[in-house]
Amino acid sequence: MPDQIVVTDDGGIRTVRMNRPEKKNALTQTMYAAMTQALHEAANSDAIRCIIVAGSPGAFCAGSDISDFQKRAEGGLKPVTLDFLHALVRNPKPLVAAVDGIAVGVGTTMLLHCDYVVAASVSRFSTPFTKLGLIPEAASSLLGPLRIGHARAFELLVMGHPFSAEEAKAAGLINAVVEAAALEDAALQAAREIAALPAGAVALARELMRGDLDEIARRVDIEAACFKERLRSEEARAAFAAFLARKK
Ligand code: COA
User: Fold this and answer.
1) With contact defined as beta carbons under 8 Å apart, do 16 and 52 qualify?
2) CA-based diameter of the chain, in Å?
3) Whose CA, among 69, 136, 163, 166, lies 20 to 30 Å from 153?
């Protein structure tokens, strides 16, 4: 089986690629653990000056794997997801995302921890948390309104309205929209530009701009506690069962 997270380093840039295209890069516990490790390694490496997170053609990430959610509701899996979210919060390296196509759930909320997001014009951002009986995660209840304002964040995170690439750019969720064929080059160019800047100045400027990381980490934990309760709710169980049993 090919690696579902592929990590490559080149010229001071680490690329962390989600690679489970047959499931639209829905993230399993194993994938979360591999991404966490990739972030930790980058944090401890002077050689790595910027990280790109990328997906597959047409699928950035379909969110957490819903069958994992279902197992967690039944008390099965360890919350590896939480380790990943904390690694994102504490990650000291500039983070660029290259989004092509689907960005659902954590596929969208992880972007709130990114510094520069470029998306293919066909991309669609959505967070159907409440439709699944869940609540926003990844500190998105804090960072979403800060990044795009309460009104738009409510529409995205609570009402579950999808945003097109252009709408996401207008909202300030992402930086740039390009044609799919130009996406990887655009992300690499941004990462190279960041990596070429004086690393100390970039790190300090970024730290000052990101605000109180303890507060962000606390919000991750508060949301996680609520999320855990919600996973066990009748609303969530019914939504997961309906997704997994759906006929296409
Ligand atoms: N968890 C588990 N499996 C998922 C998944 C997820 N989050 N997202 C997609 N998949 C699986 C599908 O079940 C399907 O598997 P199958 O081929 O074995 O039946 C495969 O990935 C391809 O998905 P499909 O639905 O056929 O692709 P699509 O392009 O028509 O739709 C999505 C893509 C992402 C819009 C749709 O799959 C979807 O809504 N997924 C759920 C997203 C979600 O709610 N995530 C959690 C957010 S909190």
Assistant:
1) yes
2) 53
3) 69
pLDDT the model gives residue 71: 81
Helix crossing, 66-73 with 213-231: angle to 10°? 70
- 162: its two tokens: 């999808």
Ligand 1 near 124 CB (within 6 A): no
Give the atom of ligand 1 at the shortest distance from the alpha carbon of 126.
47
Indicate the average pLDDT of the chain: 95
Phi/psi for 76 (5° steps) reads: -85, -60
pTM of the model: 0.96
**pLDDT tens across 105-163, in order?**
999 999 999 999 999 999 999 999 999 999 999 999 999 999 999 999 999 999 999 99
Q: Is the CB of 195 under 6 A from ligand 1?
A: no
CB 123 within 8 A of CB 104: no
Q: Which of 118, 117, 43, 48 is nearest to 86 (CA)?
A: 43
